[in-house]
Amino acid sequence: MTTRTESVSLNEKRALQKISFNGIQIVIAILGFFISRASIINGMTPFGISFLTASLGRSFSIAALISSILGLLSFHGFNSYSYLISSGIIFTLFALYTKEKEISIFKTSLFSSFIFVGVNIFKTIILKNFYIYDFLMIFFEGLVIFTLSYIFSYGLPKETVRKTKFTNEEVICVFITLSLAISGLTDFEIFSLSFKNLLSIFFVMTSGYIYGAALGAGMGISVGMISYLSQSDMPFLLAIFGLGGLLSGVFRDLGKFGTILGFVLANSIMSFYINGYSTSFLSYYELAIACGLFYIFSNYMKENFLFIPLSVSSLDNNDIYSERTKELTTKKLKYISEVFKDLGGIFKKVSYNEEVYTDNITKFINCVANDVCKNCSMNVFCWKDDFYTTYCSIFDLIASMEMTGGIDEENLPELFKNTCINTEEILDKTHRLFDLYKVNYTWEKRMAENRKLVAEQLSGISNIMEGLMKDIDKSPVFKEDVEMQIYSSLKSQRVNIKNVMVAEYSEEDFEIYLEVGKCFKGENSLENVRDIVSEVVGIPLKGDFTVDTMKAREVNRYKLIKANRYGAITRIAKNSESFNVVSGDSYTFGEEGNNYFAALSDGMGIGRRANFESTIAISLLEKFLEAGFDKEIALKTINSILMLKSEEEIFTTLDISTIDLYSGKLQTIKTGAAPTFIKKKDRVLVIDSNSLPVGMLKDVDLEIYEEYLDDGDFIIMMSDGVLESNEDANNKEKWIIDIIANIDSFNPQTVANMLMKEAKKACHDEIKDDMTVLVTKVWKIK
């Protein structure tokens, strides 16, 4: 026999002292009353004591005690005194024994069985003559109490906790519990209609309709065997209900009428097979009324089966994890694809390609010798008899040309002054080849730089792929206990929760997936669900929608993850130069994972030209950051792209601020950008830079600064048009600091607007350069 180690805690024991007649206690009272009336051999009714035993230590144990006593009295009258005394002793001793200790359900079942056997042996010995048969029946009832206590402990609800997935053992125990309750109806009738038959038909059809053929057949077999055990036609009813549950589940795709049709067909087939053309085992009136009840109440049972845990979750954890992996992979690959697509587009706009051939110095000298000296009368003397001197002389000629940019007669090697008869032709040929050589060399060097850039990009892609593989290889732990608590809390708050899945990847990394029906109701909104679940797990959460095209019309699927400790928001104020509608400043901001970023780019000049430059930089930066590239690699790549000049130079400043929303750490990277100001509660900090804009030099000069932020800090970024607007100020940074320090507002938009207002006031509304202000406010999430 399997030992179950569920324990009754002290908190559960204290809950016994509080009587709250809520929905679960009403259900327990109904079940307890009818289960205690269910009888087996010679009117024995041990099931009420088993039901009470399984309820001990839970908030509804008093309801179970009272309902069991009432059920026994309604069946036996005062002849049930041995059952009543046993129940009272079990309840009292359990309450006393568990004041300071915990007790498992196995020990509780064994304890109840011994109490019942002891009381009945004492009664048998004292009050009447006895036979060995009497003791055998007492021990048999004790064994039934022990076994059924164990079964009921699986079938009864665990307080208000609802599981999203049940084991086969638990489902079978629930079926047995309901079947025994139906068995307790016995002779309850009205107008010759048996309540026992009505409820049996109703529950079998409902189980098939809600849970399918397998569980429908299981419910039918349980009802047919247990509820009708004392009847002579039990085997036939067992077959009818079993087949009825099976066909009800098979035809449920046709709706309620399909389920009704399935059960009616099962009854007709089995009745015809057993009785031929005679009447049905089930009354047609009872069958019709039960079908009507099913049609009316089946949806209610489906949506509100809160206190009878029959539901088996349709949400497969493996399917959810596969969907998450697929979603993550697709998203990452999409971003990377967009990066290279944009790179190709930018190359077409800002660069031109010219096919060249690269020659080394040996080929250079051979080319001069072949073109000029081959047909010369001095060829044999120069290139055979005095090869070394000739070769070195041409090499010196090339070196001198490289050093001085040209050759005059004074710098000519001695060979060309005294011996060579084609000096002019050699000089002319050397000049032309040298010019071509310089072009080739320049392009070779640039190609080498580009190869380095590509290598860095490939390294970045490799890092992204490595991170992706780690995400895919994560082995989640599914937290069923947390799922139960979340499901219960959402149900109690009237949320139409369908499924819950909690996947934990590490101590700090977990995801909660929820499927919620009736999306139009306010209780089912993402915000409400997030707040309830956050309270359950005790951690602030943030969430978003995940798309499920198969169920989009029926349910919403939410994904909740751990919220950050800090929040951030950015607001903008901007003005273009007076005669240009198009601003040369571009910006972006947003949240990616646990990081928040804001970036500002100021293209050199004004108007469309400057806008083109800054837009290139910001657009590429966005794509690189979204794809997961390191910021330094991203900036080097952007710099190299802008360095691939066409006829005109393209360069722009970049000012990037990233905030770790978990630690509150700010990192700023500047390339030729205006200072960044951090407004704290009692002071204003300045982050300045002396680097050049990207696109000017082959090696980008990055200046990185780090600072930890506090609750309520402002990060203020601006283009140089704002800083340079006050031509009268000797110390422009001090002028901006004074403005920021005097702004008394917690609204980032107000801060941005006031800075812009002061800048326009300083230049008397004669804006000479584009002006943009980005203000990011950071706060701690309570």
Automatic annotation (TrEMBL):
SMART domains: PP2C_SIG (SM00331). The chain crosses the membrane at residues 15-35, 81-98, 105-126, 132-152, 172-195, 201-222, 234-251, 257-274, 281-301. Residues 565-778 form the PPM-type phosphatase domain. Keywords: Hydrolase, Membrane, Transmembrane, Transmembrane helix. It comes from the Bacteria. Pfam families: SpoIIE (PF07228), SpoIIE_N (PF19732). The keyword Methyltransferase does not apply. InterPro entries: Bact_Sigma-Reg (IPR052016), PPM-type-like_dom_sf (IPR036457), PPM-type_phosphatase-like_dom (IPR001932), SpoII_E (IPR014221), SpoIIE_N (IPR045768). GO terms for molecular function: protein serine/threonine phosphatase activity. This is Stage II sporulation protein E. It comes from Sporanaerobacter acetigenes DSM 13106.
